[in-house]
Amino acid sequence: MRSYWIQTQGGETALEARDIPNPEPGPGQLLLRMRAAGLNRGELIVGHGLTAAGATKRLGIEGAGEVVRSGPGVSGFSAGDRLMGRIIGAFAEHALMEACDAIPVPPRLTWEEAAATPIAFMVVHDMLVAQGNLKAGEWLLVLGVTSGVGVAALQAGKALGANVMGTSGSAAKLEKLKELGLDVPLLTRKGDFHDAVRSATAGRGADLCVNTVGGTVFPEAIRALSFRGRMAIVGYVDGSLKSEIDLDAVHAKRLRIYGVSNKLRNAEQRCESVLGFIQAFLPAFADGRIRPLVDRVFDFADLAAAKAHMESNAHAGKIVVRIP
Length: 324
What we know:
Elements: E1 2-9, E2 12-19, E3 29-38, H1 41-44, E4 57-58, E5 62-70, E6 82-86, E7 94-98, E8 103-104, H2 111-115, H3 118-130, E9 139-143, H4 148-159, E10 163-168, H5 171-178, E11 184-187, H6 194-200, E12 206-211, H7 218-224, E13 225-233, H8 247-252, E14 256-259, H9 267-280, H10 282-286, E15 294-299, H11 303-311, E16 318-322
Parallel strand pairs: 9-10, 9-12, 10-11, 12-13, 13-14, 15-16
Antiparallel strand pairs: 1-2, 1-4, 3-5, 3-7, 3-16, 5-6, 6-8
Helix pairs in contact: 3-4, 3-9, 6-7
């Protein structure tokens, strides 16, 4: 079968296509015939921490496909079942999925939409629900709202009943997101949004801020938070992993700052995020309240072009590769 691999060297990532034997499912695993896989900045771009330098590794962490067969000890699945979820080595014609990572694909979703869903929306569940405790009527501020996780946060926030504002340097992208319910578009890539946030919230500030941008906007995000506001740190588009912290503001406003990452979580903890997603968000996918925004679909043979499109930061939503 055809499979893509990735290597990090000298500050860059390089892709390699290989022909390898089909994998065999072990205990607790499912073998899937892959139909589509989603691109994730953390895996493909240096500085986001998911692909360390060294030996070449299988590429892909999420996708969607059909069950071929189950490994020992796995029950409840049949050949042909449509599944999506976390899949290591998803950019391949066949791949293995841990059974606890399996999420049924609602009939409304295409393969490409299903592949765009798992990682972004499980991350969003972690930061908005599990840790963020976002309530209906609260204000959600998404820094970098046009990214894959940013758009998912917008959609999930609206499904939870929140008001959503978001930053982007592209007026066209912000206009597109109004169709998904973006209440307050903030046209900026800089740390200059405090006054606009305060104005939109009648002086209150944002109850929860999702920071997909990084350290350059961190001080302004602290200023823009309300009393008892929360900030989720989830990405570093700006490449800045350090920032000054106004400890007085954190202290006086009783702020809470937390990270959102699967890097150090064990298998049991990762499976908990799958169950959280299924309970909180899957019904909204099934009835059409949430439909993932797919920016562009590339053919399997054009994965390098898909990677270049992600690196250009020209996309709004998720980039997906279709596997024929």
